[in-house]
Amino acid sequence: MRRKNLTLVAVGAGALIALAGCTTDPNVEAPEGSEAPEESVEWFDQALFDKQDAERSVTPEGPEGEPWLQHINAEMVDTSQYASEGAKKVCFANASISNPWRQTGWITMNEQLKVLQESGAISEMETRDAQDSDDTQIADIDYFIEEGNCDAFVISPNSTAAMTPAVERACETGKPVVVFDRGVQTDCAVTFIHPIGGFAWGIDTAEFLIDNLEEGDKVIALRILPGVDVLEQRWAAAEKLFDEAGIEAVDYFTGADPVKIKQIVSDELARGDVAGVWMDAGDGAVAAIEAFEDAGVDYPVMTGEDELSYMRKWEETGLNGLAPVYSNFQWRTPLLAVQMIFAGEEVPKEWVLPQVPITEDDRAEFLEANEGMPDGHYAKFGGEDLPGYPTVWQERIIP
Amino acid sequence: MSTTDATATRPAFGRRLARLGFTLISPRGAVFLLLALLLIAIMVLNPKFGDPGQLIRFIQRVAPVAIVAIGQYFVIVSGEFDLSMGSVVTAQVVIAGNLIGQDDSRSIPVLLFMLAFGAAVGLVNGLVTTLLRVPSFIVTLGMMLALLGAVFYWTGGAATGNPADSFREVGRGGIRDVPVVGIIPWSVLILIVLTLAAVWFARRPFGRMVIAVGDNVTTARYSGARVWWVKTSAFILSSLSATVAGVLLVGYAGVHPSVGNGYEFTAITAVVLGGVALGGGRGWVVAAVAGAFALEALFILLNFAEVPATMRDAVQGVIIIAAVAYSAVTFRAIRSGRTPETSPQPGEPSDLGEDRAALAPQTRTPNGARTTNGGSDAT
């Protein structure tokens, strides 16, 4: 009996101490929060920051009204070695279609494909979807090289470092390789197509918030996931600028889960005033705005994305916002580039597409142009002149 | 407990205090103590949290998790697992978003369809587990993959539009302009109703049968229980609770294929934190609900304590292991009446009242001083 009691008390006390110890641990570690800037140093690249900062103000070259064919500060390369007649087979290694941005682009790409098939430039496009897996995509690319019977490769890499060797192997076949969206650490591809980039996004959004907020105001940064360069660069740039401007910014990873987003924002509102919301992608923006509504406080100054769910909520609430754009129309460019390459036309070595945020002034114009489109659609999808417009995007028929 | 006074009333008070103390560190009670500590810690870090309006919002936020925990409680106490709950939540959220759209008139038919779908998932889980004798861990894991796969096929992994606001009202709205708290969310009322229903259910013959089946299938069978039906009903309850959680979540936040992600493990953790034995046969549904509250309070505490986002999962994991280990160790100590190091004696009787039975000798001793050396009534 005695032993039992002592044990019970000891266990109870021990566990309580352990629990209390654990629960107070965060307090002890709280100062470590100041390590955050250090973390971003990895992703922050001053040279790239400056390059993209400058590119934001460059007037792009190329056909008027067709931003997917425009380019910024391009260094053109000769492709006459690839010039050949006939319809070509394109093999497309896609990272995934697991977010609305990629889905919208994928629909647009397929409509572009139809146009090029009709004109006889492309015979078919064989696509492998890596479902967000590096391993799968490496296998997909190797399959294309070995058995794909491809005339050209289009690769939208899942991640930067892991995909580099596979892209190099594709280049070694001597057939043209087109890389778009996320980059790889090799310039063996004929052209690398992407909008200006994450730093430009971060600069546009942070400048907007800084202009509209006071020093010392608090901004919640809602980030989808760590470790993806295009997303990390957005935050790296924004965090640096917030820091310099004396804006207090706290960042969270949400996985784009609206429940998580709403809880995070609600918790922050319970702690004190939140003046701004910064997002590295618009997915879930509505849940963030609704958290302000349900808490009964004023809307924040906010940056989302050109995803229609955010654009519509932005208009409906009249909040002071900005819709940065990671140009969705870039999904048209790779197949057009393949056509140009086989025609022997010059293409930019690094094809930097324009990336212009949507402001309150031109919001109405974009909402009108995209009337009837689903919430997951992107305002700057750039497919208005393609055959399936608007039904294919309205019904969101995913090929 | 330290009172050694000879007067008649004070030892009684001491005993009562001692009993309360022991209840609080017993597995059944520990979760309430933990919850209280967490809430106090949150309020210390952020006094605003103590406002009635904030507290009711806290309950609103916990409601879906707590409801899922209630469903999981019935399955676990019957000796099985339901890993498909999170995917049922996801599937229901996506169904609501896609089938209702902005059309108010479809709300009720789609809601009925969702309930039928939930019940069907539970029925399949239960029948495959009981009649085909496939371990429920595997059945529900398979169900989880099947449902997530179907959702992925349907949505491509991206959000679709939110359903009509009228449908979302259940999860988002409530009775407004209430004095003191401001708003009483519908989800809080639903949680209260479902908790009361679960308590009532657990006291009915069916509820006792679920525990009996989880404790010892053979005995339960000999005493006339239709084991297959008892377990299948537990699975159906579980899937239906996930359906209700899905309805609340779609209202609370909106449609996304990541909603419900990990809910099965949150529910299992909540249930285990509530002192419910994995493997079945023991547990209290209210403690499981408290487990859900404690878990959610922990998340909030980590948030308020400004634990870096990257460290949160690790801290969470350690705390959960500590809490569950504590529950297991104290339970074993009480159960065997020995030091926690020794393994429990096989064939020990197991019922809900045993922790009280084990504690009874101490409460019978006249005073606290004698308790510590009361060798006379050693177990």
Can you walk me through this structure?
The complex is a heterodimer of chains A (399) and B (379). Helices cover 45% and strands 15% of the residues of chain A. With 399 residues, chain A is an alpha/beta fold. Chain A has a six-stranded parallel β-sheet, sandwiched between helices. In chain A, strands 8-7-9-10-11 form a five-stranded parallel β-sheet, sandwiched between helices. Chain A has a two-stranded antiparallel ribbon with strand order 1-12. The longest helix of chain A has 28 residues. The N terminus of chain A is likely disordered. By secondary structure, chain B is mainly alpha-helical. Chain B has a domain of 209 residues. In chain B, 69% of the residues lie in helices and 2% in strands. Chain B has 16 helices and two strands. In chain B, strands 1-2 form a two-stranded antiparallel ribbon. In chain B, helix 3 runs antiparallel to helix 11. The radius of gyration of chain B is 23 Å and the shape is globular. Chain B starts with 8 loop residues before the first helix and ends in a 7-residue tail after the last helix. Classes of the chains: A alpha/beta (399), B mainly alpha (379). Chains A and B meet through helix 1, helix 4, strand 8, helix 9 and helix 10 of A and helix 2, helix 3, helix 13 and helix 14 of B.
Summarize the structure.
The complex is a heterodimer of chains A (399) and B (379). Chain A is built from 14 helices and 13 strands.
Comma- or semicolon-separated keywords:
A: 399 residues; alpha/beta; Rossmann fold; 2 domains; globular; disordered N terminus; B: 379 residues; two-stranded antiparallel ribbon; disordered C terminus
